[in-house]
Design brief:
With about 80 residues, the chain is mostly helical. The protein has one domain (about 5-75): Arc Repressor Mutant, subunit A. It has helices at about 5-15, 20-25, 30-45, 60-75, and strands at about 50, 55. Strand 1 and strand 2 form a beta hairpin. The longest helix has 19 residues, at about 60-75. The protein starts with a helix and ends with a helix. About 15% of the residues are buried. InterPro entries: LysR_HTH_N, WH-like_DNA-bd_sf, WH_DNA-bd_sf. It holds the Pfam family HTH_1. One of its GO terms (molecular function) is DNA-binding transcription factor activity.
């Protein structure tokens, strides 16, 4: 897992869509989707419910979002 993947994950949640996050991150949607697939495979959980226009987080996704917020807070202190 890379910090970059966690940044991408948070950007997707904040933007509400993968394509919206891709615009904010100045990248295209396919590599962003690929990075999320790799993160899910590494964690062995689904983070998103797919098939709707807007991203919906699974319980695991909600937990990861909360925990990455804590991580960014700690990093900002140092």
């Amino acid at each position: 897992m890379e910090i970059r993947q966690l940044e991408y994950f948070r950007a997707i949640v904040d933007a509400g869509t993968i394509s919206g996050a891709a615009r904010v991150l100045h990248m295209t949607q396919p590599p962003l989707s690929y990075q999320m697939k790799m993160l899910e495979e590494e964690l062995q959980v689904s983070l998103f419910l797919r098939g709707t226009k807007k991203i919906t987080l699974t319980d695991a996704g909600k937990t990861l979002y909360e925990q990455t917020g804590n991580l960014y807070h700690l990093v900002s202190i140092f």
